[in-house]
Design brief:
With 249 residues, this protein is an alpha+beta fold. The chain folds into two domains: 3-111, Ubiquitin-like (UB roll), CATH 3.10.20; 118-248, Alpha-helical ferredoxin (Fumarate Reductase Iron-sulfur Protein, Chain B, domain 2), CATH 1.10.1060.10. The protein is 35% helix and 11% strand. The chain is built from eight helices and seven strands; from the N terminus they run ββαβββββααααααα. The chain has helices spanning 33-46, 118-127, 148-158, 165-169, 176-187, 196-209, 220-224, 232-248; strands at residues 3-9, 18-24, 69-70, 73-74, 96-100, 109-111, 114-115. A five-stranded mixed sheet has the order 2-1-5-3-4. α2 runs parallel beside α5 (176-187), α5 runs antiparallel to α6 and α5 (176-187) crosses α8. The longest helix is centred in the C-terminal third of the chain and has 17 residues, at 232-248. The chain is elongated and about 60 Å long. It starts with a strand and ends with a helix. The model has no long low-confidence stretch (mean pLDDT 95).
């Protein structure tokens, strides 16, 4: 395959960025998207040009590190996958592909396609934990019977990998789906009840401090989420927040 890549280049957080065009040839349809970028970088290095900086780690759709806006879609044209799981067979011969970083005030660009997602870490630190002793002196699982539907929903919420696709695809750059997933995975289980009120109040407050926008109710976040986190979690977050707000006054 012969392709034309238009890639966002930005040398630093305070530098002005621009789109740069790179032709690339002999791309195998069996390559992953990141492997294609690796090939491009090898050619740039061979020409003594600056390689393109992009985030990656596990390349198995687990870590949430890879984060590219491809042709206007978070993680590209496929569904329920991360960028590293996207393959070049999804593109056509001669196609022009636009590659950009996540676009959000709370995710400032560090360099080229890499953004700073520490805002998510600070939200987690504000309440994404439990104080219940879960190691060393744990109880047998059968001592804490949990309805299967609650356990399944908690596991579904915990599947969130914090990649930020929900923020990148939302026209308000809202982090509601991310925060909702992190709140839900604890709210549904008895271990999460101890700090339930403080957790949701603190995490929502931190989300607002980070500069994320309000929920648009359009559902684009659920569509682009590689782990298919449900909008039902946002409804649960709203209920938890309302109850915590009323009971704390």
């Amino acid at each position: 395959m012969n392709l034309t890549l238009k890639i966002w280049r930005q040398s630093g957080p305070k530098e002005k960025g621009r789109m740069v065009t790179y032709p690339i040839s002999d791309v195998s349809p069996d390559m992953s998207f990141l492997e294609m970028l690796d090939v491009l970088n090898e050619s740039l290095v061979a020409k003594r040009e600056e390689p393109i900086a992009f985030d990656h780690d596990c390349r198995e759709g687990i870590c949430g590190t890879c984060s590219l806006h491809i042709n206007g879609e978070a993680h590209g044209p496929d569904r329920a996958i991360t960028t590293c799981q996207l393959h070049m067979r999804k593109f056509k011969e001669g196609e022009t592909i636009y590659i950009e970083p996540w676009r959000a005030k709370a995710f400032p660009v560090i360099k080229d396609l890499i953004v700073d997602r520490e805002a998510f870490e600070r939200i987690q630190q504000a309440g994404g934990f439990v104080s219940v002793n879960t190691s060393g002196n744990t109880q047998d699982a059968n001592n804490l019977p949990i309805p299967k539907i609650d356990a399944d929903l908690a596991f579904d919420a915990a599947a969130c990998i914090g990649c930020g696709a929900c923020v990148a695809t939302c026209k308000n750059a809202s982090a509601m789906l991310f925060v909702a997933a992190k709140v839900s995975q604890f709210a549904l289980l008895p271990q999460g009840k101890v700090e339930a009120k403080e957790r949701v109040l603190n995490m929502v407050h931190q989300m607002d401090l980070e500069g994320f926008g309000s929920c648009t109710n359009t559902g684009a976040c659920e569509v682009e989420c590689p782990k298919e986190i449900s909008l039902d979690n946002i409804a649960r977050l709203n209920r938890e927040f309302l109850c915590a707000t009323l009971s704390s006054e």
